Q: What sequence folds into this?
């Protein structure tokens, strides 16, 4: 995929000048490398914002036209405003077609939905890494690298050294040595939420419970008995 962009020489530098540049819809930047002097540049903000939404723009050889001259560059750094959708500064690196470059390339995962661990085992594919750093000559730089998950069983994973790369592309030495996990298929975690509205335990008393009428009758009979007992005691006192 060929991506072209246009930049213009930036003659005025400094914090105040950059602020005025942004106010006018421009983005300050710089292009350096290939044993040439670093060149301050400016770009149209709207055009640059459209490019930044393209995945390949971040990991491809770009053709930059600067002051009427075309050159091949890589996007190396983008500084964004903390909360506005505004690009504050951008860095590009010139490339030498005869020198290897180090670049972070996005990973595209395929066949996750048909792998045995997902289709049969009910697992979920987890993407541990979304990009890897490689080295190659500029002409061999891929836009992305595919990671095939089609054979993963439940509990299995793919490591960096298992990714299929072309002969012209190789991992950086640190990744080769550490060989981290790129993706895995695991059983999904089940989150148990306790029901706080559940009723409190109830202690059950087994026995015959008198009805309301029986309780009233029992209360009246007891009252009569107490009155009768008091009257008998009073009569016995008079006889004595």
A:
């Amino acid at each position: 995929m060929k991506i072209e962009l246009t930049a213009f020489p930036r003659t005025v530098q400094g914090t105040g000048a950059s602020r005025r540049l942004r106010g006018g819809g421009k983005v300050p930047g710089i292009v350096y490398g290939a044993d040439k002097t670093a060149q301050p540049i400016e770009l149209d903000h709207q055009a640059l914002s459209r490019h930044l939404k393209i995945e390949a723009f971040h990991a491809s050889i770009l053709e930059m036209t600067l002051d009427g001259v075309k050159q091949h560059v890589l996007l190396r750094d983008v500084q964004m405003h903390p909360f506005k959708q505004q690009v504050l500064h951008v860095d590009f690196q010139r490339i030498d077609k005869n020198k290897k470059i180090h670049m972070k390339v996005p990973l595209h995962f395929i066949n996750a939905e048909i792998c045995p661990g997902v289709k049969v085992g009910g697992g979920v594919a987890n993407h541990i890494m979304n990009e890897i750093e490689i080295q190659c000559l500029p002409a061999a730089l891929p836009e992305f690298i595919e990671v095939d998950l089609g054979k993963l069983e439940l509990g299995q994973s793919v490591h960096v050294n298992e990714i299929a790369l072309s002969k012209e592309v190789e991992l950086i030495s640190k990744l080769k040595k550490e060989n981290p996990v790129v993706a895995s298929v695991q059983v999904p975690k089940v989150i148990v939420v306790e029901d706080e509205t559940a009723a409190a335990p109830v202690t059950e008393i087994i026995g015959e419970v008198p009805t309301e009428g029986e309780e009233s009758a029992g209360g009246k009979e007891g009252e009569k008995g107490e009155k009768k007992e008091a009257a008998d005691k009073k009569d016995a006192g008079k006889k004595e």
Notes: Helices lie at 15-23, 45-52, 116-119, 173-178, 212-239. DSSP finds five helices and 13 strands in the chain.
